Amino acid sequence: MKLFHYHFWTNRVEETENYYRKLGFTVAARYAMEKGTVTPYHPPLEWKDFRENALIFRIIEVRRGKVNITFGAGKKPIFDHIGYLVNEEELAQICNRADVMGWKAETGARRTFIFTPYRFKIELQTRKDTVSDENISISHMMIKSPHTSIKRDLERLFHRNVDELLIEEGEQLQLQEVLINGVEDSSKDPNKVIVTGC
Q1: CA 120 – CA 37 distance, rounded (Å)
Q2: Half-sphere exposure (CA, 13 Å, Cβ side) for 115?
Q3: SS3 assignment for 102-126
Q4: Which of 5, 73, 182, 188 could bond to 68 as cystine, CB 3.0-4.6 Å?
Q5: What's the superkingdom here (predicted)?
Q6: Nearest Cα to 63, choosing from 122, 133, 113?
């Protein structure tokens, strides 16, 4: 299993897309709510083609190598979930352990979500086409939370050490920093997530 993904809600959707594009990410998909219907605005469309439509983007997906990031329109930046690429056997084992722990698992056709008691979810993804073979990957993530038992519980859920996740005590849940192999420099995205190359 491999950490590959994070998702958040933001009131700075266009700025967030532009930030990650400058880091070499490509836009894989854009979906907006329009008159109660989800409508795609994928590339080659650019923001100049639809900015005046005042769209509410449900999800924008950007990719680079083995890193997949999604974000959607919200009232303010809110960290929602992290994601792991898993095989079918790992998926079944993790869902079984989640059940034993009393954590809800929601299985869908495209992905499975584990609902933790810590105000963020874990996406389990078996589809390898959500990433590419380019040698860019997430090395570590730092999450701040008032709950100090997150790491212990995730190690129980995954039945292994989760050294790729650094949990720091903080007043509220926040994705603090993401270290990405193959990305140069260090900067903050428009949602105050520090993206550091390593």
Answers
A1: 27
A2: 6
A3: CCEEEECCCCEEEECCCCCEEEEEC
A4: 5
A5: Bacteria
A6: 133
The residue with tokens 């100049």 is 48
- If you write DSSP's letter for every residue of 124-140 in order, what string do you get? EE--GGGS-SSS-EEEE
Number of neighbouring beta carbons within 10 Å of residue 116 = 20
The predicted pLDDT at position 134 comes to 81
Cα dihedral: 12, 18, 23, 29 (round 10): 90
Task: Please report, as a single letter, which amino acid is at residue 71.
Answer: F
Beta bridge partners of 180: 138, 197
Which one is the CATH code of 2-197: 3.90.1150.10, 3.10.180.10, 3.90.150.10, 3.30.70.1290? Answer: 3.10.180.10
Cβ contact 48:89 at 8 Å: no
Token duo for residue 21: 């594009």
| pTM for this predicted structure | 0.94
